[in-house]
Amino acid sequence: PSVKDFKAIASVPNNMIKLSWQYNELAVKNFVLYRKTEGDKIHVLEVIPGTAREYYDKALKPATQYTYFLVAHFQDWKQSKMSDGVVVKY
């Protein structure tokens, strides 16, 4: 199953976007976080440990809209479906 409750909250004073999610499947090796900006292709932003449920993106440009996607990768090399995109303007 895909990641649930995937959220993004921009904090301009702290120069970051906080991403958080829920995922209750066992044996998650890692999460692969993808990011897309307007006019650009989707790309891998970060590989995150499977125990994590949040990530802080600090590589940001003002007045930019970001779309994030998340995929869980398992110990047996299988992966979840890509999450729905979460859109946030920084």
Shape: globular
Secondary-structure class: mainly beta
- The helix/strand series, from N terminus to C terminus, equals EEEEEEE
- Given as residue ranges, the uncertain stretches (5+ residues, pLDDT < 50) are none
Helix content: under 10%
Strands in their spatial order, largest beta sheet:
4-3-6-7
Please count the helical segments.
0
Give a count of the beta strands, DSSP E runs of length 2 or more.
7
CATH topology (fold) name: Immunoglobulin-like
Top CATH class:
Mainly Beta
Q: N-to-C terminal Cα separation, in Å?
A: 29 Å
Evaluate the radius of gyration: 13 Å
Describe what this molecule looks like in 3D.
With 90 residues, the chain is mainly β. Helix content is 0%, strand content 56%. β3 and β4 form a beta hairpin. The mean pLDDT is 95.
Give the topology, please.
Blueprint (H helix, E strand, L loop, with lengths): L3 E8 L4 E7 L5 E10 L5 E7 L4 E4 L7 E10 L11 E4 L1
Antiparallel strand pairs: 1-2, 2-5, 3-4, 3-6, 6-7
